[in-house]
Inverse folding.
């Protein structure tokens, strides 16, 4: 380890040191940028949050001490219910996330399709657009008839083969 003027050059500050220096810098910024009434309001807000958190912690500790002091089966049931509650909340968040992405994809597809159709009508004009649609309908009707006849032929072949097997 190298020393410069009695202090190590590879000084790694502890977490407590980083938190305290960050807190001091943050408080210094608050003091320099806020008025006295704003600081008083902030102090009252932080005090209210602190009392609420303290109450919640004390209530939770009292509940856990009651459950652990009772029969072990009661504590096990409470733990299982807590795990079930957390699991269901996580599943609910995942469901909402998936639903949001599917909704986004559907909206993008809808508006994208609308823009494409609008550009098609703009470039070909209304008459050309109608002609293109009629051509597409004729093509898909022809394909539909072709594959319908093909399916009927396959059904007949299966029916003949089935009769021959029995």
């Amino acid at each position: 380890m190298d020393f410069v003027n009695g202090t190590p050059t590879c000084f790694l500050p502890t977490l407590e040191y980083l938190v305290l220096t960050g807190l001091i810098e943050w408080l210094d910024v608050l003091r320099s940028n806020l008025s006295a009434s704003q600081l008083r309001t902030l102090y009252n807000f932080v005090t209210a949050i602190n009392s609420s958190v303290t109450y919640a912690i004390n209530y939770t500790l009292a509940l856990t001490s009651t459950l652990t002091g009772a029969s072990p089966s009661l504590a096990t049931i409470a733990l299982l219910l807590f795990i079930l509650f957390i699991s269901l909340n996580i599943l609910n968040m995942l469901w909402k996330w998936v639903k949001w992405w599917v909704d986004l994809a559907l909206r993008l597809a809808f508006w994208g399709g609308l823009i494409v159709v609008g550009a098609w009508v703009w470039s070909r004009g209304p008459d050309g657009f109608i002609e293109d649609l009629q051509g597409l309908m004729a093509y898909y009707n022809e394909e539909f008839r072709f594959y319908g006849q093909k399916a009927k032929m396959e059904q007949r072949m299966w029916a003949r083969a089935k009769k021959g097997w029995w």
